[in-house]
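Q: What would this chain look like folded?
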Amino acid sequence: MITAQTALAEARARLGAAGVPGAMGDARRLLAHAMGVAPGRLTLHLHDTLDEGALGSFNALVARRAARVPVSHLIGRRSFYGRDFEVNGHVLDPRPETETLVVAALDVEWSRALDLGTGSGAILLTLLSEREQATGTGTDISAEALSVAARNAEVLGVANRAQLLQSNWFGGLSERFDLIVSNPPYIAASEMAGLAPELLHEPRCALTDEADGLTAYRVICAGALSHLAPGGWLMLEIGWTQGEAVCEMAHAAGYSGVTCRPDMDGRDRIVVARAPL
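A: My prediction, written as structure tokens:
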């Protein structure tokens, strides 16, 4: 038997040797998960002796992380905008950059939202959690992703205000919304080979359009006006080099007030446009 501190040191060395970035932070999160303690309280348990079950579980998690399986998939959770969301290999991990989209959406008035390609539901369900009187619809082509979103909606207590539909973008939708948001696949096929190994564990269709990275924006910009109420908002997460191209699409489609908002690193991240009044 060894202490948690010793196991942590060995795991850090193992992950570092495997080239895993942030090895210590990942090791701590995995150890806390294996021990069944809150990550913020792990320090209080570092001198505890690990029982056989916890040690075996931890070593197995470290081995998978060394193989570049994301920590979120190993523990089944990912934090987003102050809430924990279930994630797995069927959904895109919500990332801090996407919180910029939530902030932008909460800056304007709306009561009915549509999230295209909702995945885990992180964007839509966060918005509904922040706007207690609002309702929303999330669409996705993946039934497995929608199952994850449904479980997240139940845990967050917003299932009665969230409709989840299997649909390819606007397919099957006839109503209009005050707000349409989306974080569509925007990585060009030519860029996929250069991505971090962890991304190979996320659904490829949520990452790339297998083309130039702009296919989804063409579809959404062309179709959203038919599903927005007068003066409704369209907000799209983009890759940091795509701001000019997506803004031009929005202008050409007839939106007004088209702007591009930066993320926390100052890079173009959200295109904001408004339907005519």
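The chain has two domains: 4-67, 88-274.
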